[in-house]
Write a structure and sequence with these properties.
Layout: H1 22-37, H2 41-70, H3 80-100, H4 103-111, H5 114-119, H6 125-153, H7 162-184, H8 191-207, H9 222-226, H10 229-242, H11 247-276
């Protein structure tokens, strides 16, 4: 019996194979960051949970007992814990955004040089930037969700609108992360980050309405505080948590934070290209 001839293979479809979209390349960079994060997530989870617990217990409950006795009228006759918690939510998002967009960026371009390895592949510098920003967004979502859960456990939630404070806090973190990441890619020494932490993060944390109303600041300092991104995030998270937010106020704060994040992304597309295409 004659052997059977092998079945003929089908010819590939005619025409060029469509190239993957830019966002699919960004997702590949995002998957690289999540792969690394699987090895280190335990340490960050502990800090993400302990930080809101310690702050709300020590300041919101401990110090708040004294504030409630003597100064609740200036807070709108609400408990200090209810006043403090949403402000800390926005401040924690700022810390996460800055932390994920400083040393990890410099390490990827200078010490580990993984950015250059990615740029040598089909990924473009913009894909590398967007992929890292996607990972930063994921970290913001995780930390803000944990913070909201801790707020609820402490009884600091006064309105169901606090759910809307969750995306606002994430947007607040992105308003810091995108511009700083666009700048950090051009940094050659980590000494610049100390300036960001000492003269940027700490003053904003203390004087942007997180712990006390901005109206208590000196007159010359109030316009400066009102112009900071953290104040916009704190003010909107607080008004949503208390159920006092208005449409005009919400649009103003969201527009400011979204514009800052969009500007950071636009600048980052250029700075990443300038640094990685050598």
């Amino acid at each position: 019996m004659a052997p059977q001839a092998p079945a003929a293979r089908q010819a590939p479809p005619a025409g060029p194979v469509p190239a993957p979209s830019s966002w699919s390349f960004a997702v590949r960079e995002f998957r690289y960051w999540t792969t690394n994060y699987r090895r280190t997530w335990r340490g960050s989870i502990y800090s993400s949970v302990l930080s809101p617990v310690l702050y709300l217990a020590a300041i919101g409950v401990g110090l708040g007992t004294l504030v409630n006795k003597h100064g609740s009228a200036r807070l709108g006759h609400i408990s200090y814990l209810a006043f403090l918690a949403p402000g800390l939510l926005a401040a924690a998002a700022m810390e996460t955004g800055i932390g994920e967009s400083t040393y990890p960026v410099l390490g990827s371009v200078k010490w580990r040089r993984t950015y250059y390895a990615a740029a040598a592949s089909p990924l473009r510098p913009a894909d590398v930037f967007h992929g890292h920003l996607l990972f930063t967004t994921m970290r913001l979502v995780m930390n803000c969700a944990v913070f909201l859960a801790v707020m609820a456990a402490f009884g600091a939630v006064k309105s169901a609108w606090v759910i809307a404070a969750f995306p606002v806090a994430v947007l607040t973190g992105l308003a810091f992360a995108a511009p700083i990441e666009a700048w950090a890619i051009m940094v050659t020494k980590d000494t610049s980050f100390a300036m960001i932490f000492r003269f940027g993060l700490i003053p904003l944390f203390l004087f942007s309405g997180t712990f006390f109303p901005v109206s208590q600041l000196p007159g010359w300092a109030q316009p400066i505080a009102y112009g900071t991104p953290l104040w916009h995030g704190v003010a909107l998270c607080r008004s949503l948590s208390l159920g006092t937010a208005t449409i005009g106020e919400t649009l103003l704060h969201v527009g400011y934070l979204a514009a800052l994040a969009a500007a950071g992304i636009a600048i980052g597309n250029r700075t990443y290209r300038r640094r990685l295409y050598v």
